[in-house]
Design brief:
single chain; 363 residues; alpha/beta; Rossmann fold; Dihydrodipicolinate Reductase, domain 2; seven-stranded mixed sheet; six-stranded parallel sheet; 11 helices; 17 strands; 28% strand
């Protein structure tokens, strides 16, 4: 807990969808712990804005600019569709807010640079929510690899696959403006460079279409990308968002890394907890992602890598807002620069898909 003498961080959330709900829950948790005050939410529809306003007892808006101009916020979290990240983040930074934005930071490296420059100019923190870094399994893999437990890393295989309901239902309004690589592949790109500790210097990718087109959506079904890192490590990243609706989990995902002295691998979809019911069939349950637990104070405390990055950023913003040295927190979370590097890789994947060529990257 923090002293009541400290200034609480005034937080506003832009986005009222599934992920916006995680932002709201995490911010309310930090309010209860004394770090923040959850002030407001902006959502696309009046219905959603009113619903979240009533649920959380906060102000609701349909115009995020109006919200930012009125509420004197310290921190804004952005959980909008990917193609809107840039405009919302820049406006929040212009209002001198610290900003956490969902991945990808932007769909162009130039847009990422605009955000990084403005954050630096206004001396504000900018974090990208690459939440896989907060998964204890990923932390352990990184620790083992960087400590040399498996020797020199040679090659790896990362995969992540969403149910077809994601592009057809969850993202029905903007799936055609994205792809499985932009939507989920960027998670694996960030994990790859974070775990191995090297930058990606070469990309070759292949894409597949058909299933979504049959359902009236003009978007790729899957992407397979081979990435070469500067130290010679080679990794294939396979992503798709068309696995069957009846699959036991919303996401199927895992990692395997082979080195000179061993290997390390994990199936992060099947962590051992299964549930089978008449109504819903077989389900894999991942409590590392999101967990809610009753407290003696009568509220539900939330944890897991869906919300822990948001909580972490609020704590660190609280430290800075209350006079802490910004240098002490820089490098302790996925930064705007991390976001731009990942976007550059995703751009290279797109270029390889369109040209059929190997694309070289410079850092």
């Amino acid at each position: 807990m923090v002293s009541n003498d400290n200034k609480k961080v005034r937080v506003g959330v832009v986005g009222g969808g599934v992920w916006g709900e995680h932002h709201l829950a995490a911010s309310r948790q930090m309010e209860r712990e004394g770090f923040a005050e959850l002030v407001c939410v902006a959502a696309y529809s009046q219905k959603t804005a009113s619903k979240k306003s009533q649920e959380y007892g906060i102000q609701g808006y349909t115009d995020y600019q109006e919200m930012l101009e009125k509420e004197n916020l310290d921190l804004v979290t952005v959980a909008t569709p990917d193609h809107l990240h840039r405009e919302v983040t820049l406006y929040a930074l212009e209002q001198n807010c610290h900003v956490l934005v969902e991945k990808p930071l932007d769909l162009s490296s130039s847009g990422c640079q605009d955000m990084i420059d403005l954050a630096h100019q206004n001396n504000r923190l900018l974090m990208v929510d690459f939440h896989k870094r907060y998964d204890p399994y990923m932390m352990e893999i990184r620790s083992r690899v960087l400590s040399g437990d498996i020797g020199t890393p040679y090659y790896g295989y990362f995969y992540m696959e969403d149910k077809i309901t994601v592009p057809l239902e969850n993202l029905s309004k903007w799936a055609e403006e994205s792809s499985p690589f932009w939507f989920i592949g960027v998670h694996k790109v960030d994990l790859l460079r974070w775990i191995i500790g090297q930058e990606i210097v070469q990309v070759f990718a292949q894409g597949y279409k058909g299933k979504l087109e049959e359902n009236g959506v003009n978007a790729l079904d899957a992407v397979s990308a081979n990435l070469l890192l500067e130290g010679g490590f080679s990794c294939t990243i396979d992503v798709s968002w068309v696995i069957p609706e009846k699959f036991e989990s919303l996401v199927n995902q895992g990692i395997r890394i082979v080195g000179s002295n061993g290997l390390i691998e994990v199936d992060t979809q099947d962590r051992g907890l299964k549930l089978c019911t008449v109504d819903d069939g077989l389900q894999s349950i991942n409590k590392f992602a999101y967990h809610s637990q009753a407290t003696p104070q009568g509220y539900q405390a939330v944890s897991g890598y869906y919300v822990d990055p948001i909580k972490d950023f609020i704590r660190k913003t609280h430290y800075v807002v209350n006079g802490g040295d910004e240098k002490q927190v820089i490098g302790s979370f996925p930064s705007g620069s991390d976001g731009m590097i990942v976007t550059r890789v995703a751009e290279a994947v797109d270029e390889s898909l369109s040209t059929g060529k190997i694309i070289k990257l410079k850092h």
